[in-house]
């Protein structure tokens, strides 16, 4: 090799599972790479022209090639928002043209590159290398594609050759092996773990843990919710990494100081973390449930005692113990990491052994991040985690839920006897958690389906190629029946990009499912999407707007026939919906005041009125409480309803009304009437 300095090999856990492939031929990868790098810098949308062997010309979009094929190996990097440039190392390779220099970069950034070269024996085939990758190095590959990509690069670099079906190392390959450090199977599989005594400071932290209030572990909250990572803040440098959940929680509590009004805290969060107004509402919902802040006066929040304690840099164990006492499957994770495990495996354990029905990759990743920040678990590679010696000692001090115990945690929306507010809260938690996690699209689709079912529709979660995510049907008489296709768009940065909504595809789905209306649900939407949506007769529904609808629907439900008219007005959807809910809320408020007036009249002991009150007197009493003033027709509708024998709240004699039961019994009767109607 030349004297050019080679970058150090990354630890196995930090190296990429995949290696890119440039279209144009396996043995031409190095030449194609050289051509691509020579055309940089270039915009993501620029088209790169590559000349493959045999006179074939290949066209490839710059961003697609750089993101999916070259960035994992450290060969390209972004410059600004949409420009790609060769990495410093790639630029040096273009100058020195040393095959070993490039191979060292690939080995240092990609798993099982030099290791594959070292695994070649006297009669090795691709199938043999796949077995070694899976069984010896723990790579979860189901096809030989990644093996063939690596051998393609190695052939292109002159380090191996193919003799029929045999893979053979060249003399150059043997020389290269002498220059690099090969990871051992123990490093790759994560089985090398030193057993040592826990640090002295851990005992102090465990003493604090012991003072925490014990809870019924089976009744802990399921979802942690939205924790901001600071990605959207203009005050953070472009090169800064996102905040970890621990750092974010600490920063939020520190920003609150000894207490702030909601508005002052919102402004701080906007300045420091770039949190939008809608995201702030979601974040506050999650932060309050952590028990680290509390409302101490009207519109005023302060850190709790434990909130002040977790500000200390050495309070990681205390924070984990506190969160363990509040959220399902938290400390229990530690006991399932004696052998390295993936997030997906932990999700399965959470659901099957602990009854955590809402477990998802996103929720488990957040828990693992807290545990990792506290030094209780460590990452073996991009997919797997294992316990540390500190973690083992720490877990022994926690009260953990038994995985074999009968669990009562279940999905509230599937329980016909669950209170409406419990079902609604469960759906809202899911919408907020999954909608802002770009990796939980299926879970978000499911949450959106449950939301439309709560609104009274028959909702089917379909998904998959050529099908809508959710099909919501208003099951009414044939002339009133209608269908809505719902596209659920989750987004890790809280804004659905213009390119994410395919209006042509939505039209196809609408036609295929014979739907009447189209709705797209997401955290928020890029500005131009809103105009395009109106032009394409699509309703864009933000998560927080859907949450507000669910809350109002639980108290003042709009009939499905009336909701149809609202979905038909794409350009005024939100205004029409708000007007309809306000009308229903006004009617309910009128009923409440009329019952109160009737109660006052009944208990006044007036021997002349005998507890009766006229319609005129009711309207007169309410004239200053409602704007506009209630009409005789509005009041008459409410009085007729309350005087109906089924409700039995009032009796009417000669146009005057008298209360015949207590307000409490009237309320119970109305609830009971609703509870007798089957909703499944």
SSE layout and pairing:
Blueprint: H1 29-38, E1 42-43, E2 47-51, E3 57-61, H2 62-70, E4 76-79, E5 83-86, H3 88-96, H4 99-109, H5 114-119, H6 126-135, H7 145-156, E6 160-163, E7 166-169, H8 171-179, H9 185-189, H10 200-210, H11 245-256, E8 260-261, H12 262-273, H13 277-289, E9 293-297, E10 300-303, H14 305-309, H15 316-324, E11 341-342, H16 343-354, H17 361-373, E12 377-379, E13 384-387, H18 389-396, H19 420-435, H20 441-454, E14 458-461, E15 470-474, E16 482-488, H21 503-512, E17 517-522, H22 527-535, E18 539-542, H23 543-555, H24 560-567, H25 573-602, E19 612-614, H26 615-622, H27 632-643, E20 650-653, E21 656-659, H28 663-675
Parallel strand pairs: 16-17, 17-18
Antiparallel strand pairs: 1-5, 2-3, 4-5, 6-7, 8-10, 9-10, 11-13, 12-13, 14-15, 15-16, 19-21, 20-21
Helix pairs in contact: 3-4, 10-15, 19-20, 19-23, 25-27
- Report the span from N to C terminus: 72 Å
Q: Helix amount, in percent?
A: 40-55%
User: How many extended strands?
Assistant: 21
Rough outline: elongated
Order of strands in the sheet with the most strands? 14-15-16-17-18
Secondary structure class reads alpha+beta
Largest sheet properties: 5 strands, mixed
Structural domain tally: 4
Mean pLDDT: 84
Helix segment tally? 28
Q: Evaluate the radius of gyration.
A: 32 Å
Residue runs with pLDDT of under 50 for 5 or more positions: 194-215, 405-419
The share of residues in extended strands comes to 5-15%
